[in-house]
Amino acid sequence: MSFRQFVINNVRRNPKVYGPYFFTSFFAVTMFFVYALLVFHPEFKDSIDSSSETMSYFAMIGFQVSQVIIVIFSAFAIFYAVSTFLKTRKAEFGLLLIQGINKKQLVKLIFWENMLAGLSAVVCGVIFGFIFSKVILLICSKILALTETLPFYFPWKPILLTFGVFGLMFLVISFVTSFTIRVNNLKALLASQKEPKKEIKAAWYIALLALVLITTGYGIVLIFTNRESFALTPLFTGVILVVIGTYFFFSQLLVFMLTRLRKRERFFFKRTNLLTFSELIYQMRDNVSTFFIVAIISATAITAMGTSSAIGSSGLAEMSENPYAITYTGYGQDTISKDIISYTEKTLQGDSYKRANGHFYQFSDDTDVFYTFLSIEDYNALMDLRNEAKITTPPGTVVLLPTESLSELHLKSDAPDKIEIQLSNQKTTLPVEKVAPINRFPYASSSSSVEIGTIIANQADIDALWQEAEVRYKNPKDNYNSKIPYTIFHMVDWESTAASAKKLQNNVDSWNEKNQDSDKGIYTGFESLAIQWQTMQQTNGLLLLLTVLCGAVFYTFSAGFIYLRLHSDLKRDEQQYKMLFKIGLTKSELHKIVARQLRVMFFLPLFVAVIHSLVAFLALQNLLDFNIWQNVGIVIGIFIAVQAIYYFFVKYQYLKQLRRIMK
């Protein structure tokens, strides 16, 4: 048998060693290829540009940064994996040295084994990505809410880039790892599997510090993530404290708790608890890093997916500044141009829509305080568009309308009893009848104070105030009062109006080019809820592709670490359980012990990740008026289901290996 055949057989006949290494590398290569497939697509940038040039810029930058992150993390993860399973093969290397292989040949063997497994992953990842590239483009087009599906193209640039980057990475890793294995001491190599593990020590004050850091981090995140005092610096500080606390949780607090349980004799010596918890304490030295990585990566992925799911909801889009399908706002005009209205009716003729017209009145009093008024008739017409509750108010009274979250919070707790407006040496007092539910309108940017918001009044009262406000300005050039007309078209299935909205947008742009007058302030504004939602979906899609797919790569490597850790301990566990079997350990007891240990290994990090994510979602909910918990529940359920499937698969395989020694 030639040396080349020996290398191939070594890799082919050790699927439990090279299997996780190959699969995780294959997954990382495939994700990298997906990003490259989009970055080099000839029509991808133009498709994003059609919605937002800024979105296109961040998309390209984000994909490129994600590729770099995947490569860097893959390099560290693969190097860690290779180093770990090389340590498990020390006894095998010792036997090879006894059989006559020299140190140079052993280094060469390790190098080509790693290269063979790595390059196989690259080839398979690229082939898989290429075969399913059409499906990938369809999925990405859907996720990014592109109006036209990205067509298939031959991705020769992504193929070359993937082969170049990962080929070089595996070359460097194989070269470095082949020289890291110590082969000078033959006796140490042969006795490597018999080296006893040292018990990790836990200090009570560091264990307490873990709780303090996590609790403080949670508190900072929840306190500073709200509508009144949102700040990024405290938010990042809280996240960093939680990350540090999580590491101390696994390395100190968890070990401290297990050690305390061991001192409770009635619990510790009950049935198989002695074996289960003793083994867990010793395993923590090897599993701290794995638990920590899995917990942080899972928390990041869960939070990203849950946030993406919430942002992509059409219900959240309707809670934006303007909840109506098509909105025209006029400046320097009494009404919206008839040409614009007729073109809109012609474009939307196949849709069942409702229409509403009205005005906002904005003026200042003698103390230079600005107010925005909306007549109750116009308000009710807007309410009718979405079949919402109408209101009434007696003449001479007003209703306060909060137009943003801050004003809503203030008016709910401390609404004024009356509004006093000083105009032309005459004070007008308007009693506040009530506070209307928060709503957003085409002219939501009120120049009145945040606490007051928009004021709803009867048209007769508004006309009287308007006349008094106009008298203040003898020179029209000094008049800053504004009477702003709007026309709104709304339909239930507004999500389908994106294509029509782009035509209407172009029509308004053309009208403004011909009729816009900066001196007179003539201009027509246009807003489309479908386009706003599409932008939100693209933001959501980018977040999904840039964070969740990266998180999936990290999570896959973490899952590989768990499997690799179990495999590295398998021979020692076989010897341990073989001795226990001789002194009376039953198969059912073996199953119970292994199941307990594996449940801790698989679900404890996930449980910590879910707790971290729930705190993040609580903070997110404080910023939104939209219920996100249904989306959150689905995302968490998916993660638990995937982890459960992986747990049962690994448990079956692990027990299958251990049962052989009990026959």
TrEMBL record:
Bilayer-crossing regions: 21-41, 61-82, 116-139, 159-181, 202-224, 236-261, 291-311, 542-564, 600-620, 632-650
Predominant localisation class: membrane
Pfam families attached to this UniProt entry: FtsX
Membrane topology: Multi-pass membrane protein
Domain ABC3 transporter permease C-terminal: residue ranges: 68-182
InterPro entries the record matches: ABC-4_Integral_Memb_Prot, ABC3_permease_C, ABC_permease_BceB-typ
Keyword field contains Transmembrane helix: yes
Subcellular location: Cell membrane
Keywords, ordered alphabetically: Cell membrane, Membrane, Transmembrane, Transmembrane helix, Transport
Family affiliation: Belongs to the ABC-4 integral membrane protein family.
Protein name: ABC3 transporter permease C-terminal domain-containing protein
Organism from which the protein derives: Listeria newyorkensis
